[in-house]
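Customer ticket, subject: "Can you confirm the structure for Benzoyl-CoA 2,3-epoxidase subunit BoxB?"

Message body: Hello, I'm evaluating your service for our small team and ran a test protein. I'd like someone to confirm that this is what the system normally returns, since I don't have a reference to compare against.
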Amino acid sequence: MALTADYTDKIPNNVALHEDRRLQRALESWQPNFLTWWDSMGPTLPTEDVYLRTAVDVGRDGWARFGHVAMRDYRWGVFLAEPKPDRRIAFGAHRGEPAWQQVPGEYRADLQRLIVIQGDTEPASVEQQRNLGATAPSLYDLRNLFQVNVEEGRHLWAMVYLLHAYFGREGREEAEELLHRNSGSDESPRILGAFNEETPDWLSFFMFTYFTDRDGKYQLGTLKESAFDPLSRTAEFMLKEEAHHMFVGTTGIDRVVLRTAELMREHDTDDVTARGGIPLDVIQKYINFHYSVSLDLFGSETSTNVANYYTSGLKGRWGEERRKDDHTLTDDSFLVDALVEGAIGQREVAALVGLNTDLRREYIRDCHTGLGRWNRLLEEAGIERRLYLPHIAFNRQVGAFAAVETAPDGTVLTADAWEDSKGAWLPTEVDKTYIRSLMRPVHEPGRIASWIAPPRQGINGKPFEYEYVHLV
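Agent reply: Thanks for trying us out. I re-ran your input and got the following:
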């Protein structure tokens, strides 16, 4: 494969598409379908152009360029990270063997399924966020929304390339289906539940990019370890772009919390609704919802499928090569979260079947970093209240805890007690209506909505006042 990017092709790429005319024609025939999907299911706010980062290469320096681009003309391309010479499989039954450059027949169906599920999440989030531009709190935030959207579109391209290049007719059919499913559709919904939820407001958007995109980071991290080298290299480059999406969520919630703290201190009140702010109680409810929904994306606490993926070399652990074990796990055990005689506890299982729990725990540790940031802002403002992550069993629909209801502290509740109290812990229609009432667009350079603080700095050295988006 080529190491340098060909940016003159109809589809920018560093995989030497011009050397495989059949594949090039197949992807060029898929491109109009993608643009039709973008036109019908992508951002609805009309724009002239947007100050966007466009991937142009994969090197450490100069991998992207910034400039005003008409979104429909964005150069969605196919980029794989640079190959590692003589890369060896790091885990499972094939540990130590050369990484695969083609799909082994015995693993074809499983690999295809993993790629389809990952690919399905990318356009789903664009669909969920398509109407947010109309209520953006600033041009800076509007630009960040559109940056996330176009990069999710590029991540779809990344998965579609793998399906076309390595999975024949079935892969091409799956690539078409990625454009035919739609978030929230009754007839043809997206595969994973969290990607059929609404993202109706900017507080939800920031929570999504903090919690749900962070799940994406960890899923991509397991695919980066894959023995199938093209998938590994694809996931590695996607992680580079994914970092900005989580930055949008982290700093977005920073700025909401900061503005709330300013209003609380300025007016000496916990009730900032009269001042156009978002109360800490409501912020906490949104954290509870988005965190618990994102925990479900990791699947059940135990999984023989994931055990087989690991043993086969399809999907590794987060940070596989830093682990201090034999990287096969055949004789190891692991404690997973479980219901034990109706109470929340742990049980011992074979380490291989507990890999979902292992990954979820890595994610939970990472999620706590945001809580630390937001609570420092409250502390610096002299506010005693602290935000928290609810218990792992709270509001779960998948896995061991789907059968019970708990309070945010993990106390197991009766069904009646849950119904009586859930409005104190999860967003109610009153909460959602209030948040929607704040969502009035601010599309003038240098101005910002009253419920969120401005960023500390702009994008790519530009000031906050920069005209990041030119509207039609």
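A couple of notes from the result: The chain has a mean pLDDT of 96. Strands lie at 47-55, 64-69, 333-340, 343-350, 405-406, 412-413, 469-471. Feel free to reply with more questions.
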